[in-house]
Every structure is written in C-alpha cells, then in structure tokens.
Write a structure and sequence with these properties.
Strand content: 5-15%
Pfam family, one: Sulfotransfer_2
Number of strands: 10
Largest sheet: 4 strands, mixed
Protein name: Sulfotransferase family protein
Number of helices: 10
Distance between the termini: 24 Å
Order of helices and strands: EEHEEHHEHHEEEHEHHEHH
GO molecular function: sulfotransferase activity
Radius of gyration: 18 Å
Strand order of the largest sheet: 1-2-5-8
Number of domains: 1
Helix content: 40-55%
Organism: Sphingobium fluviale
C-alpha cells in the first residue's frame, strides 16, 4: 500500500496484480516511508505482509490508515482470477518453498496447487502469511458489501493506469509489467541450475534473487514462463478458481467493461 498525504491518494496493492510495476515509482511520494512494503510482526495479527492488508483488517487494526483511505482518493489494479492464481502459485513456490523458476515443473506446480486448494478450503477468514497471495481481490476493494476503493483498473488497461497516476501525482510509471514469471532460456543449462537451486536459495536473500533475475531477464537470459496445464477445462483447479473467486471474476469483468 502507498499513501501520499501530499496528493491525498492511496494505492491498494492487491497481490499478483502488477503491484510492483505501480508501487516502485510511487515510493518517492509514500508518506509511510515504506511501512506497508514489508513482512513483519503485528501485535494482534501475528506475522503478516504489510503490503497486502485486506480492508477488514485495516479497518480494525490500522485506524489512521483506514481514515485516510476513506478520506483520500484511492485506486487498485485487478486481474483475471485464473491468471492471478497461476502467478500466485509461482510466487509461493519461489518465495516460501525456496525453488528457482527453472525447478518448477508442471507436475510440481499441480501437486502444490492441490495443497493450496486444500489449505484455502480449510482456512478461517484470515489467510496466513504463506497464503497471502491467494486472498480474494474483493477483500481489498469492498467491506461489508460497500465499495471502499474508488477506482478499479484491470491489469489489461495499463495505459489508463499510467495516465491516472500521472494526472493524480505527476509520477511517470512504465507500462511494462515487472516481476513476471520467467524461466531460463537455454535448456541445456537447466540441469545445472536445478542442482544449484537449494544452496543458492539458502545463501541469497529472496529480494536479492529477484533483483538478479530482473537483470538477467533484461539481458535476454530469461524468458516468460509457459502457462501450466493445471487450469485445463473441467479440471479440479479450474473448478475451484471459478467458485472460490467468483466475485473477483465479476469485478474484473466489470472493470474491463468500464
């Protein structure tokens, strides 16, 4: 989340919805000094990702920020639930399982998807840190059936997002989406990468690995990862996503229509 007191503007960062692309250039006007861009401990909520606080928790535990959200202009970016679920799966395997992108096979991601679905179906109202990327998008936009966030943009309309930010703040945002799921371009090297992935993950912090991956992608060593087959029509995962994220699908479709 970004809060700019100078511009009276709030950006709600829904996980896996191009938030890094939007958030990075807005840090220069963030009045919280990055307080909502970290993982940390909260006295009531436990260990949480401060970047991804759902509205019911903000209203209950962050009264100052909640008051600003209600008083200021606000916006967020949404995404197709199917694409977002796939992206969240890759994020989970990289960030919480310590796997390099090259080590994520179709069989592994499908097995992990089964575990995630089981956890989501059994979870209470609040998802734990390792499931934060699977929160419903609606929980960042609505509270008790009332839309709280003023402007909702679909990720497909990045030029409109860029124009809105420029108009509201004067900050220029690049239209290219950052933090994409990628894989190593040269297949012959993948066995070596897989062999080194565990010591690499153990020795190099996640944030540093992300920065290095971005540089290697820009150098042409990585390419966009192929979409896994776990969302095949009629499959277990597809059925779960359609049901669990039904409201998110409606929100995304409505944002596209606007």
């Amino acid at each position: 989340m970004i809060i700019s007191d100078d511009h009276r503007l709030v950006f709600i960062h829904i996980p896996k919805c191009a938030g890094v692309s939007v958030k990075a250039p807005l840090r220069a006007i963030d009045s919280t000094g990055g307080a909502f861009s970290r993982i940390g401990d909260h006295e009531a909520l436990g260990r949480i990702h401060y970047a991804h606080i759902v509205l019911r928790d903000m209203a209950a535990h962050f009264p100052t920020e909640w008051d600003k959200l209600r008083a200021y202009r606000s916006f967020a970016v949404v995404r197709s639930p199917e694409e977002r679920f796939v992206s969240a799966m890759f994020q989970r395997l990289r960030e919480f399982k310590g796997l390099a992108q090259s080590a994520i096979t179709p069989a592994l991601i499908e097995e992990e998807a089964t575990e995630v679905i089981r956890a989501l179906e059994a979870a209470p109202d609040r998802l734990g840190l390792e499931l934060v990327h699977f929160n419903r998008q609606a929980d960042y936009l609505f509270l008790d059936g009332t839309q709280i966030v003023e402007r909702i943009f679909p990720i497909e309309h990045m030029p409109a997002i860029v124009a809105h930010i420029a108009q509201e703040t004067g900050v220029q945002v690049a239209e290219e989406k950052k933090n994409r799921s990628t894989e190593f371009r040269f297949g012959a090297v993948k066995p070596l990468i897989r062999a080194l992935r565990k010591p690499y993950a153990a020795l190099v912090p996640y944030a540093a690995r992300n920065r290095l991956r971005s540089k290697m992608t820009n150098a042409g060593l990585y390419t966009d990862a192929k979409r896994p087959a776990m969302l095949r029509p009629g499959g277990r995962v597809e059925g779960f996503v359609k049901t669990y994220y039904a409201e998110d699908s409606r929100i995304h479709a409505a944002s596209l229509a606007r």
